[in-house]
Write a structure and sequence with these properties.
The complex is a heterodimer of chains A (224) and B (259).
Chain A lengths: L1 H21 L1 H20 L4 H33 L2 H6 L5 H31 L6 H25 L5 H28 L8 H25 L3
Helix pairs in contact in A: 1-5, 2-3, 2-5, 3-5, 3-6, 3-7, 5-6, 5-8, 6-7, 6-8, 7-8
Chain B lengths: L21 E12 L2 E12 L3 E5 L6 H8 L7 E6 L2 E2 L4 H5 L2 E4 L11 H11 L5 H11 L15 H13 L5 E5 L7 H16 L3 E5 L3 H6 L3 E6 L2 E7 L5 H6 L13
Parallel strand pairs in B: 3-8, 3-9, 6-7, 7-8
Antiparallel strand pairs in B: 1-2, 1-4, 4-5, 9-10
The chains are: A mainly alpha (224), B alpha/beta (259).
Chain lengths: 224, 259
């Protein structure tokens, strides 16, 4: 078990090191998400009540769409030098490779959220930096990373992978995006945990189902 | 979740005699890509201590065959085993015995040579990793380039780094797909040395090459592929370059550096 965790960390650490050198993934997510959030602040006349109504939707749409860019990049990087083949040649199970990639993508999305949330809070003038929203963000990041990693692996050998990934990822993630939007909406309107517990359960259920399903799917999509 | 057996692979012992144990056994392999059938019922056996050269015209399936052996491509039909491990069921165990240098170096361009070798060494749980990285770098003439990123290296040095990656975990079977392409003379000598050591240690080498004379001279057995099957399987001492090229079919298909 410890050895498997070590392998997962080695894989994720390699992705972090690559990202530290290239800064492709986090930068793409942050810049795109901040652009979306900023454009909406100009497009909508933001009164306090309207901010609370539309803000959560804008926030999670921005994170989900921007996340696609980052997820695409994380596997394109493996395809470019055929390093995916290099990984496949190691005696590491496909599940561990999957979890290593998921951990890397989870860290990238979380780092991007750490930058996006305060900027969003300042622009929309609503408080999202609360423990409830942080829990929702972590659950959303887990789901996005798991589904995104499996679909990015599926799309990586396809010529039109930039189109394929959002077409697969966004519709599948709708329940999670809905849960995140509704939960955040309750939080910014002063609700408590019990007011959004159903949405929280949906997010947890989504994560459990899609982490397992994506891990299984991942093994097959990598095979030629 | 299955976890692979991570016993330390056997260390090469140049004094060990060829064992004759079956290293790779492929039976009735078939593989198609779309409508194009590449392998059509191919049979092949490679034994420990053998250096095998595979020839064939472009597109005949040499690289596909090596990818199947490397567990990167799953055959549509047929069986293939590495030291008795069926690749359809025990690929993770078989990968411990395999080292491969294919067309691409399979190294991270933004990581240094040292970081790449360390990463892949960790994936194979190579014991004494730091020493092994230095040992492989020295063997491949990469000591002064250990801290250079892969994308900053010439093609030849990338190939050397790829060879170091493939040998990090001391594999018993070495798969080389046109590995000599792009190598300068010193690097070719290193490659020849690695192949000779592997043979002397009683391990197996399977290589594809378009350099027919060189391939025959440097191998124990020759296979020529044609029509997705083995058209010739003979000891190298009994093969002439024309035996090989005669089976290529259309002479225009013979690649550069051919006969």
């Amino acid at each position: 078990m410890l050895a498997s965790l070590g392998t997962v960390w080695t894989l994720a650490r390699k992705d972090l090191l690559l990202e530290l050198r290239s800064r492709d993934i986090v930068l793409a997510i942050v810049v795109f998400a901040l652009l979306v959030v900023t454009i909406f602040t100009f497009a909508i006349e933001l009164t306090p009540s309207r901010s609370r109504d539309v803000g959560p939707g804008v926030l999670w749409a921005a994170v989900a769409f921007a996340g696609v860019l980052g997820l695409n990049r994380s596997f394109a990087m493996e395809a470019e030098g055929s390093t995916l083949d290099g990984l496949m040649l190691t005696p590491v199970s496909r599940e561990l490779i999957f979890f290593g990639k998921v951990l890397g993508n989870f860290i990238f999305i979380t780092i991007a959220e750490i930058v996006i949330f305060p900027v969003f809070e300042a622009l929309f003038n609503i408080s999202v930096l609360q423990i409830e929203t942080i829990v929702i963000a972590l659950l959303a990041s887990i789901g996005f990373s798991a589904v995104g990693t499996a679909f990015a692996a599926m799309s990586v050998r396809v010529r039109s992978r930039e189109i394929m990934l959002p077409l697969l990822f966004l519709p599948t993630s709708v329940p999670l995006i809905m849960a995140a939007v509704e939960s955040t909406s309750v939080v910014v309107n002063g609700g408590s945990w019990s007011d959004f517990s159903d949405w929280l359960q949906l997010a947890i259920l989504f994560d459990v189902i899609f982490v397992i399903a994506s891990a299984v799917l991942f093994q097959y999509v990598l095979e030629e | 979740m299955t976890s692979p057996t991570h016993d330390a692979p056997e260390i090469l012992d140049p004094a060990a005699p060829p064992s004759g144990v079956i290293a790779i056994e492929a039976g009735r392999l078939e593989k198609s890509f779309g409508n194009a059938a590449v392998l059509r019922g191919l049979d092949m056996t490679v034994r420990d201590g053998e250096v095998v050269a595979i020839f064939g015209a472009n597109g005949v399936g040499k690289s596909t065959l090596l990818r199947v052996m490397a567990t990167l491509t799953r055959p549509d039909h047929g069986n293939i085993s590495i030291y008795g491990s069926d690749l359809s069921k025990q690929a993770e165990v078989a990968r411990l015995s395999l080292g491969a240098v294919l067309h691409s170096p399979m190294l991270y361009g933004d990581l240094t040579v040292k970081e790449n070798l360390t990463f892949f060494g960790k994936m194979f749980r190579v014991p004494g990793l730091t020493e092994r990285v230095d040992e492989m770098a020295a063997r491949m003439g990469l000591m002064r380039r250990l801290d250079q990123r892969i994308r900053e290296l010439s093609h030849g040095f990338q190939k050397r780094a790829a060879l170091a990656r493939a040998l990090m975990h001391r594999p018993r079977i070495l798969l080389l797909d046109e590995a000599e392409t792009g190598l300068d003379e010193p690097a070719r000598l290193i490659l020849d040395g690695v192949i000779a050591e592997h043979r002397a240690a009683g391990h197996a080498v399977v290589m594809t090459t378009h350099s027919i004379k060189r391939g025959i001279a440097g191998s124990d057995r020759v296979f020529v592929l044609s029509g997705g099957r083995v058209a010739l399987d003979r000891p190298s001492s009994q093969v002439t370059p024309s035996d090989v090229t005669d089976l290529y079919g259309d002479p225009s298909l013979i690649g550069p550096g051919g006969a």
